Structures are given as C-alpha cells and as structure tokens.
Structure prediction request, 68 residues.
Amino acid sequence: MPASGWAAAALAAQLIDEIDRLALKINPAALGGGVPLFGSSGYATRRWTRTSTQAFTSGVIFAEYARG
Prediction:
C-alpha cells in the first residue's frame, strides 16, 4: 500500500469532526487488506445522509453523503 494512502487516512482521522461531506467511489472488487477510511481514529457513530448516488454500467457506484 502506498504511504500516501495511509497519510490521507491519518489526515482524515485528525479532521473527522471538520468533514461535512463524503464522496465515495465504490468499485466492486475485493483486493484484500486496505487503508481504513479514517485511519485509526477509533469507532464513534457519526450520522451521514445520502445526497446522491450514481451507478455506472461497469458496476462502480459514486455516492455522496452529507453530515447529519
């Protein structure tokens, strides 16, 4: 795993309370281990509301969420 992936996750973990929008690209492929989205920030329930979803013929889904 590139170091940049871990660095981005660590930064997201530090800024989790400042993030008000998520944009996720979901690719239907299992690749084994990966980088946790928010690094090692620990588990705390946070509510997100889906604002849009777009599915592509490739199977990829682009989903956007807003805090709340």
Summary: The two ends are 32 Å apart (CA to CA). Helices lie at 3-14.
